[in-house]
Fold these 4 entries.
Entry 1:
Amino acid sequence: MRLSRYFLPVLKENPAEAQIVSHRLMLRAGMIKQQQAGIYSWLPMGFKVLKRIEQIVHEEQIRAGHIPLLMPTLQPADLWRESGRYDDYGEEMLRIRDRHGRDMLYGPTNEEMITDIFRAHVESYKQLPLTLYHVQWKFRDEVRPRFGVMRGREFYMKDGYTFDLTREDALHAYNRHLVSYLRTYERMGLQAIPMRADGGPIGGDYTHEFLVLAETGESEVFYDSEVTDLTFGDREIDYDDRAQCQGVLEEFTSRYARTDETHDEALFNAIPEERRRVARGIEVGQIFYFGTKYSEAMGATVNTPDGKKVPVEMGSHGIGVSRLVGALIEANHDDKGIIWPEGVTPFHCGIVNLKQGDAACDSACEALYAALSAKGLEPLYDDREERAGAKFATMDLIGLPWRITVGPRGLANNLVELTSRRTGESEEMSAEAAVARIVEIYASV
Ligand SMILES: Nc1ncnc2c1ncn2[C@@H]1O[C@H](COP(=O)(O)OP(=O)(O)OP(=O)(O)O)[C@@H](O)[C@H]1O
Ligand SMILES: [Mg+2]
């Protein structure tokens, strides 16, 4: 992409309405535009990041054996009357009536609809285990939408639903989700810590929230500092191996890590004092095993091997895809702007031409652009007639992890400059070496 032909409406001034840095930077970098409280248009660069995140989510879900489908945003109220949640959900549910007077709603989540799909098409235990998921817009009429896309009213979520014959199988599905989520967040360059969460009215231990530590997080969190040393890394995982998945769950959840909802002072104080941490976090996902709550209410049963009919065991598992864009920026920025991790960056590399219109500089930039594109990478070439300072400021604001700078002085010696956005360090090298370095960096992402 050439910046002169792109749509990147960067703001010069700090938007007054933004209280936290991610919201401010998303507006300034031209990623989103608010259309109503908590409802945003995703402008081209914001949309690109959203799609990159969604892509990682899909890849990791499919790797875990989970199957994508797509359910509609609008749902019939009658399904929610069956589960009893039509009345329970309260003001957060956006209720709509069509021209025939039928009650509908904009889905805040999809347990009812997926259970309806299941009961229509699955009869036998032989069709289990089954995990179906989608990435779809949700609507929750939050009392206080704020912090930009972090707490929107319309937001993009991955929600997956597991169906199993036995509780034991359902807990394996839970563990599989925990592992796949660890991989997902790590690929984005994020540390998200599984913390024991509150099961709400359903109760039980089988729910964890994934939290990204950030001062602006809405949840207060308490944890043993050892949890931040854990990484999943590039270890091999066999998602059918129950012991291995259970082992990962134990490794990542045995140390104390809880949000204020489940915090237990006595347990926390049993940790050596120097390891006790109280901080804030952003909830970027949650996994939940709830058994037969919906299958019983909605008659979703399966035939067992010995000819009985039992309600299917279920769980639901969510990732806040649009919230993650904000959370990533909260965790990766400096006073000049965003610093995208390589896994989610909207463009792989920026190209800055210090002397637009100079024949040598222009052709060197074009050659870089072509060479990077030929390697399957997406460069963003700042080909505007702007001062160098303005070009650098834009690149720093939008946060591409790598920048190649081309100027007449360097070119005289066949050199360009490769700069890391994160460290600010620059290195001179030939254009070919710069391309090779960028290719190498992304090959391992
Ligand atoms: N209003 C929202 N705006 C953006 N993302 C959201 C919003 N509500 C929930 N999410 C994201 O969707 C994920 C799964 O939804 P879940 O039902 O667990 O949300 P939740 O627990 O109600 O969230 P919260 O406690 O933040 O209101 C959450 O972990 C979060 O990342
Ligand atoms: Mg939650």
Note: The chain has a mean pLDDT of 96.
Entry 2:
Amino acid sequence: MKNIGIFYWPIKGNVETVAKKIKEIYGADEVDIIDLSKAEPKHLFHYKNLILGCSTVGSESWEDATDDNVWYQFLHKMEDDKVDLNGKNLAIYGLGDQMRYPYNFVDGMERVFSHIVNHNINHIAQWPNEGLTFKESLALHDDKFRGLAIDLDNDEDEADATITKWVEMIKKEI
Ligand SMILES: Cc1cc2nc3c(=O)[nH]c(=O)nc-3n(C[C@H](O)[C@H](O)[C@H](O)COP(=O)(O)O)c2cc1C
């Protein structure tokens, strides 16, 4: 059993870039990265610790999400299957663009989190609200994000340092 499974979607964009970076920083032999569109809820049980990766593309609610939204489908499958993650450590990261979408920054992270939190997880690695410029985010609670809020569109130069800091946080909490 590998230590960490990173389940992410969409593929081929910034969410995937961050998944690969986490794997590189953490150590390839400890981490698998899994395209969510090829996964089923039972695959979550292959890992002691879980990281979920998502982005915000449009500020639509789940109710308006299109059928091709893989996170929406996966989370509903988990609900149907009554998946019990039994205290597994779970961290989440979300991509967003603070300049173009300052009122909906990384909202998608909250949408995913609001489902996964119902599956008996141990939520780790919340991210402090520091160094970002935005107005509102659904994913911000008590001045902490549900997980790593990262903006590769505007802060690419800092990305490696930011991800490294988050990985250190995860290591301390698991
Ligand atoms: C049509 C569209 C809508 C977007 N809406 C939001 C948004 O509401 N909030 C936000 O923080 N970022 C928003 N973004 C920015 C993306 O989340 C950001 O570019 C992210 O890095 C995309 O990652 P991905 O290519 O892996 O999906 C939007 C991008 C696009 C193209």
Note: Helices lie at 14-26, 70-80, 107-116, 159-173.
Entry 3:
Amino acid sequence: MLELRPHHILDIVRNVGNGRAIAPHEYGHNLHLVTESIVANVDQPCALVGRNDDICGPCAMLSADRSCRDVLRQLAEPVSKQDYNDALDRRIFCYLSLEPGAVLSVRAFLELARADIDGIVRICTHPKEDPESRKRGLILGMAKLGILASDAPP
Ligand code: SF4
């Protein structure tokens, strides 16, 4: 069963919607493999976790203590990606009234997010990311995965 940070699922759906290539990353993490798995079966169960996950497994930035040593450099004051991700996923758990460790299908998680896409965009848009691009990607990605009608306005 997949173990994923909730924001990683939302990033994947945005990428799918925006047509981003599914390819290995220079860090060596599993984003491309998990993306392929979700596209192939959005009904598979997933444990939602507030820590580093199945995407991080082989990542060059994952330390021996399983913390992320990467840094978000797009902010005026660079921020630890571990701290940023932990805070972001806490916001998502709280917003969707979920607890870390909850097991549900990827589809069920996305249906919760679908209920308030504007709110999800507000709390999930990364620094320097265009919120409209994130919203468009989420809507188109959910349509591709059968979570939203394909004629939903982006
Ligand atoms: S959160 Fe950190 S360890 Fe996980 S995939 Fe991203 S850069 Fe790698």
Note: Residues 27, 29, 52, 55-56, 59, 61-62, 68, 70, 81, 85 surround iron/sulfur cluster (CB under 6 Å).
Entry 4:
Amino acid sequence: MENGGGGRGEEIKWRFEGENEKITTAGKITIRGILDILMSSLDSNDVRPKIPLGHGDPSAFPSFRTSHDAEDAIVDAVRSANFNSYSPTVGLLPARRCIAEYLSRDLPYELSPDDVFLTIGCTQAVEIALTVLARPGANILLPRPGFPYYEARASFNDLEYRHFDLLPDQGWEVDLDAVEALADENTVAMVIINPGNPCGNVFSYQHLKKVAETARRLGILVISDEVYAHLTFGSNPFVPMGVFGSIVPVLTLGSISKRWIVPGWRLGWIVMSDPNGVLKKTKVVSSCFSMVVKVDAV
Ligand SMILES: Cc1ncc(COP(=O)(O)O)c(C=O)c1O
């Protein structure tokens, strides 16, 4: 077949030709995109061994095995044939109840299953949060260094992002002065990743309280990516940002990918850690609901 041809000899100008630049640009700033660039830039004649810094694959490394209880629960669910149908778009009630109870253990208030939306890994939780908050002219504050999927997702949603630094001399704490300086009347949220990726830091209770007070002063919500919750290095215990939910509304994002070492199972959540109901009043909850309904319909 000729290039660009329709297979019958004639030249056709296909109207769908060309890359979607938005997707290509967003794809380049994901971890996998950067890794691909790195790997393709290696000198194939260099025989020195390479250390695969991007490795945490539980299938490649059998020492990373989830518990038999977790495996049995999946097998039982499959064999029961009770879960072969379409589930409610927000997720099955027993699963949302379990997540609400599990996260409430570390909070000074009780989450309800209605505060929990199930997602396809924490990745879809990020996608929902950033899609719901994107509106013309809005901006969001992201940590640097951080997890590049936030930048990719923000670009994809036409949501402007601005970076605040994490401070290496202060245990990678948030530069709160920078947050204050960057925010304006169009800022809708700031993101924290705790425990941190890529720095591995764990924010102290006192620091998280300051983050909450700063965000409250600015009138923005906090998106707290806790996908590494309870996987801590150093002496700071893990404190969920939701502890400060009565100071500032928090969207808590998480999944079973890391703590249970099953990233391929693709189960995550987005949780309204917001005992004062600000997210309900400001319609963030109903937008999340519409978003999961829309994704499910697709
Ligand atoms: C900070 C952070 N957020 C979100 C994710 C995505 O998590 P999941 O694999 O559950 O989609 C990752 C995965 O590496 C991550 O490091």
Note: The first helix runs from residue 21 to 28.
